[in-house]
Amino acid sequence: MIGPAVFLLLVIVVGGAIFANVSAFNQIAALKRQLADVERERARDRELLEAVLLEDPGKVRRLVGTRPPAA
Of 17, 23, 35, 51, which cross-links 59 as Cys (Cβ 3.0–4.6 Å)? Predict the structure, then answer.
């Protein structure tokens, strides 16, 4: 009688541990994606700052995504 109860408890504990690990790995993956996004944004910001400091209006427009004013 005690055997099945212990087995069931063990299954629940192991299932919870597996779920916790999967959840942790998903959180790590999400954080890695966020970090990659932030690094891409910082690289773009550095490139834009460099273009502004070098006074390169064509590169600034390309990076910002605006068209030159119509003449």
Answer: 51
DSSP 71: -
Ranges of residues in the chain with a pLDDT under 70 are 1, 67-71
| Residue 67 backbone phi and psi in degrees, to 5 | -95, 150
For helices 57-64 and 2-53, angle between their N-to-C axes, nearest 10 degrees: 150
Extract the tokens encoding 56. 């390169």
**Cα(64)–Cα(45) distance, rounded to whole angstroms?**
10
Name the residue with tokens 């690289």.
43
Q: Where are the beta strands (DSSP E) in 1-71?
A: none
Global pTM reads 0.60
